[in-house]
Amino acid sequence: MADALPCIRCGALLTPYDQAISVYMFAQTVAVSPKQKSDSERIKICPLCSVSLAMGPEPEGPVNVKVYRMLRNLIGPCDQLGEYVWRSLGSGVVVPSEVLPPPRRLSAV
């Protein structure tokens, strides 16, 4: 499919009909005449990777930090994306129950 792009993190192929987050980037000259502008580049991030990235620690590098902050601001109020991720995880993830160690006998001193 011509419009399908891989998730920038996990590589899953995302079609225009799949839920995802798109990040558009371009470069433009400032205080230079005539103004020059690069072509726009688009990256896609699948819902699972988006939530994982947004909930993780802040990355290093100024561009990575900007994208990280945009994801956090976008995902926070987006209930639909969070619900999609939870439904996806619910199909194969086992949530561990509380594990208690076997009881130990106290020895008298």
Structural notes for this entry:
This protein is 32% helix and 13% strand. The chain is elongated and about 85 Å long. The chain has one domain (5-90). It is α+β, with helices and mostly antiparallel strands. It has helices at 47-55, 62-75, 79-90, and strands spanning 5-6, 13-14, 21-25, 41-45. The N and C termini lie far apart (74 Å). Strand 1 and strand 2 form a beta hairpin.
Name a few traits of the molecule.
32% helix; two-stranded antiparallel sheet; 3 helices; alpha+beta; 109 residues
Oligomeric assembly: single chain
For the biggest β-sheet, the strand order reads: 1-2
Unreliable stretches, pLDDT < 50, 5 or more residues?
93-97
Based on secondary structure, the structural category is alpha+beta
- Biggest pleated sheet: 2 strands, antiparallel
Overall morphology: elongated
**Cα-atom Rg, whole angstroms?**
22 Å
What is the rounded distance between the termini?
74 Å
> How many distinct helices?
3
Strand percentage lies at 5-15%
How many beta-strand segments? 4
Mean pLDDT, to the nearest integer, reads: 80
Order of helices and strands: EEEEHHH
Count of the domains: 1
Indicate the percent of residues in helices: 25-40%
Topology:
Elements: E1 5-6, E2 13-14, E3 21-25, E4 41-45, H1 47-55, H2 62-75, H3 79-90
Helix pairs in contact: 1-2
Summarize the structure.
By secondary structure, the protein is of the alpha+beta class. Helices cover about 30% and strands about 15% of the residues. The protein starts with a strand and ends in a 19-residue tail after the last helix.
